[in-house]
Amino acid sequence: MKVDKFLDAKSLACPMPIVRAKKAIQELEEGQILEVHTTDKGSKNDFAAWTKSTGHELIEVTEENDVIQFLIKKH
């Protein structure tokens, strides 16, 4: 899958990963993919709620070595 923008939000605490993701996704066109990496455990719930409320699609959530990776499709 082609990622159009990458956001490194590791070591940022809530709510900064979401704040940065909101800004980053505004720079994308509809249908493009944003990849976000974070280490904040609360991000899983935050990103699920944020994508649901904004209409963006949370394509995938993976976790590896304490880094949570999100793939979000802009709608």
TrEMBL record:
Residues 6-74 form the UPF0033 domain. The keyword Methyltransferase does not apply. Pfam families: TusA. GO terms for molecular function: transferase activity. SUPFAM superfamilies: SirA-like. InterPro entries: TusA-like, TusA-like_sf. Keywords: Transferase. Belongs to the sulfur carrier protein TusA family. This is Sulfurtransferase TusA family protein. The lineage of its organism: Bacteria, Bacillati, Bacillota, Bacilli, Bacillales.
